[in-house]
Write a structure and sequence with these properties.
The protein has 355 residues and is an alpha/beta fold. The protein contains twelve helices and ten strands. It has helices at 2-40, 47-60, 67-85, 129-141, 166-178, 193-197, 213-220, 236-248, 274-283, 292-296, 302-311, 338-347, and strands at 105-107, 110-112, 118-122, 146-148, 182-186, 202-205, 226-229, 254-258, 288-291, 316-320. Strands 3-4-5-6-7-8-9-10 form an eight-stranded parallel β-barrel, surrounded by six helices. Strands 1-2 form a two-stranded antiparallel sheet. The chain starts with a helix and ends in an 8-residue tail after the last helix. Bound molecules: phosphoenolpyruvate (PEP) and manganese (II) ion (MN). Manganese (II) ion is lined by residues 124, 294, 320, 330-331. The site of phosphoenolpyruvate has 10 residues, from loops.
């Protein structure tokens, strides 16, 4: 009995090898067919021919496998043959590759992605000359070198405050320059990239624009560092592909920003995705920062969120700070005042990395 089993198994092993050889022969033929087709200028993929091949095999199928099994097996064979003809796509620039060091972006006297975590702080929006001057002075006293503030606001409602436009950028740049700070500000329209780039040291692409491929291409050509925020409904992979648009455009200076994603939770505005921070650091050489303000939409948990972000490996934090948060024209509930922000930095034992 045992001998019979062993003999049958040996036969099976022999058939497997013959099948493998036949598959290899089929693969080589497919490659030759592709060469001829290329010479004749014919399309490589011919679904009708594949359909006919399959139909014929099902028709002459002697059993014992049912027709569905034959279809499934040859479906895989045909798929593998198509893969054989596809050109291998190049490895993504945004992914870690052997020998490629972590990206460090030097701006405003700090190194984003360097040894020390950086802090980007400032109001949600530039609301006036006095407001931005006041907050810039306070932040600079606390050692912050990167000043944020939007002059173009992508608001959910078209009737809400949309930002002050170029005039806001003038005041923002003026306040930053007075204290030797660098400007981080959002651009929402590809046509404005050049103009915003005249005032900004870092161009921010906001969450609602992460999938705006025209804007990604435009900032890819802008020759300025880009802070790319994760779409609030985007996966980690989609964020990396969005960054790839900028890198493929020739601009490797990209900072990724986790800013919370939409979930069923209502006690926070978004849910801070800490695993995204760890994954992005693991998969990409680009610096990663965490916006603890938009992630939570509230300020009472700013400190634990900041700690969690840094513990997960973030290269820095973005925090909304307003000189008078209760008067803010947008995101009033989440903006810290200068005192609260000073206490946050103290609790984090943040000592500014001086140039
Ligand atoms: C912002 O940082 O100003 C902002 C609008 O955030 P987000 O794009 O993440 O919503
Ligand atoms: Mn905001």
């Amino acid at each position: 009995m045992m001998e019979e089993l062993l003999a049958l198994r040996a036969d099976l092993d022999g058939v497997n090898l013959r099948l493998l050889e036949l598959l290899a022969e089929r693969g080589r033929l497919v490659q030759q067919v592709a060469e001829v087709k290329s010479r004749l200028g014919l399309p490589l993929y011919d679904p009708r021919r594949e359909e006919e091949e399959l139909a014929r095999l099902v028709q002459v199928n002697p059993g014992p496998y049912p027709a569905e099994a034959i279809r499934a097996i040859w479906g895989e064979v045909l798929r593998a043959s198509r893969h054989l003809l596809e050109e291998e796509s190049p490895p993504l620039l945004v992914r870690r590759r052997p020998g490629v060091p972590d990206t460090v972006i030097r701006v405003g006297g700090v190194a984003i992605g360097g040894k020390e975590p950086v802090v980007i702080a400032g109001p949600c929006a530039v609301e006036g000359r006095e407001q931005i001057a006041e907050v810039a002075a306070g932040l600079s006293r606390l050692g912050v070198r990167l000043l944020r503030g939007s002059a173009f606001k992508p608001r959910t409602s078209p009737y809400n405050f949309q930002g002050l436009g170029e005039e806001g950028l003038v005041w923002l740049a003026e306040a930053a320059r007075r204290h030797g700070m660098a400007v981080v500000t959002e651009v929402i329209d590809p046509r404005d990239v050049e103009m915003v780039g005249r005032y900004a040291d870092i161009l921010q692409v906001g969450s609602r624009n992460m999938h705006n491929f025209a804007l990604l291409r435009a900032v890819g050509a802008a020759g300025r560092p880009v802070l790319l925020k994760r779409g609030f409904m985007a996966t980690v992979e989609e964020l990396l592909y969005a960054a790839e648009y900028v890198l493929a455009g020739g601009n490797g200076q990209v900072v990724l920003c986790e800013r919370g994603i939409r979930t069923f939770e209502r006690w926070t505005r978004n849910t801070l995705d800490i695993s995204a921070v760890a994954l992005l650091k693991q998969e990409s050489p680009l610096p990663v920062i965490v916006d603890i303000s938009h992630a939570a939409g509230r300020k009472d948990i700013a400190l634990p969120l900041a700690r969690a972000a840094l513990a997960a490996g973030a290269d820095g934090l973005m925090v909304e700070v307003h000189p008078w948060p209760s008067l803010a024209r947008s995101d009033a509930a989440q903006q810290l005042d200068l005192e609260e922000f000073a206490r946050l930095l103290e609790s984090l034992e943040y000592s500014p990395a001086l140039p």
